[in-house]
Design goal:
Order of helices and strands: EHEHHEHEHHEH
CATH topology: Rossmann fold
Structural class: alpha/beta
Strand order of the largest sheet: 2-3-1-4-5
Largest sheet: 5 strands, parallel
Protein name: Gluconokinase
EC number: 2.7.1.12
Strand content: 5-15%
Number of domains: 1
Number of strands: 5
CATH architecture: 3-Layer(aba) Sandwich
Catalytic activity: D-gluconate + ATP = 6-phospho-D-gluconate + ADP + H(+)
Radius of gyration: 15 Å
Pathway: Carbohydrate acid metabolism
Enzyme class: transferase
């Protein structure tokens, strides 16, 4: 499973809580970025496709190697990125879009400390975002609520996909 969305949408927080709830392993996809990508974002420069493709390949490869249930937090902003991750993983991947307004997400980004992504890049993230379509193995969850409610909404949607 991939928790996706723009920077600051809660991938790490939701991922850790969801992994606990489901008995899964969680990995923050930021850990798979090469140092050059992190340096670029730290300087306030948005990543382009050339920067993202190798990282997305690593995300897919990590999912392919996973033993047991694996959740990775990865922006996966474009449909093509999600398709690449799934193709690289070689299996069906569920994408959970953590969706929120720019105002909600900017407030969350301003409240966190120690992250390399500046709020200046949020607009470029929203400009790049292609929310999942109905024909993708994906669903969206509104993040404008407490963490526990977000996790419950994800679990409920996952149960609905199993039937």
């Amino acid at each position: 499973m991939v928790l996706m969305g723009v920077a600051g949408c809660g991938k790490s927080s939701v991922g850790a809580a969801l992994a606990d709830r489901l008995g899964a392993a969680y990995l923050d996809g930021d850990e798979l970025h090469p140092p050059s990508n992190i340096d670029k974002m730290r300087r306030g420069v948005a990543l382009d496709d050339e920067d993202r493709w190798p990282w997305l390949t690593l995300v897919g490869q990590t999912l392919a190697r996973a033993e047991g249930r694996q959740i990775i937090g990865c922006s996966a902003l474009k449909r093509a990125y999600r398709a690449h991750i799934a193709q690289t993983a070689g299996e069906v991947i569920t994408f959970v879009h953590l969706a929120g307004s720019p105002e909600v997400i900017k407030a969350r980004m301003n409240a966190r400390t120690g992250h390399f992504m500046p709020t200046d890049l949020l607009a470029s993230q929203f400009a790049t975002l292609e929310p999942p379509d109905a024909d993708e193995n994906a669903f969206s969850v509104d993040i404008d609520r407490p963490l526990g409610a977000i996790v419950e909404a994800v679990v409920t949607q996952l149960k609905g996909m199993e039937t």
